[in-house]
Automatic annotation (TrEMBL):
The lineage of its organism: Bacteria, Bacillati, Bacillota, Bacilli, Bacillales. It comes from the Bacteria. The keyword Zinc-finger does not apply. Keywords: Signal. This is Kelch repeat-containing protein. The keyword DNA-binding does not apply. SMART domains: Kelch. SUPFAM superfamilies: Kelch motif.
Amino acid sequence: MKRFNALLFLMLIFTLLMSNMAMAETPSNDNWVLQKEMPNPRTGAAIAQVNGLIYSIGGANGSTVYSDLQVYNPTTNTWALKTKMPTARGSVSTAVVNNKIYVMGGYMGNL
């Protein structure tokens, strides 16, 4: 569980810095290991965890705002693209209730 929480935290930090890097802490020797990179780098993506999978939702890369949903499986060290949101948004907030992810607010690229 410590490794999973550390991975979730580090993914959040890297999405805020517009990166596609993912890392995990290995508790047995207390170091960080590079994981498979996200398909698309971004900043301002929301991160949520449901049933052992980590979801990266929306975000932006410069002037491009994304609606996509990238899912990371830490067991297989793989990413998958899932159904996009109806609107492209960055800097969104998320909540997980009963294993369902809710996405609220965010920046749509038009101030």
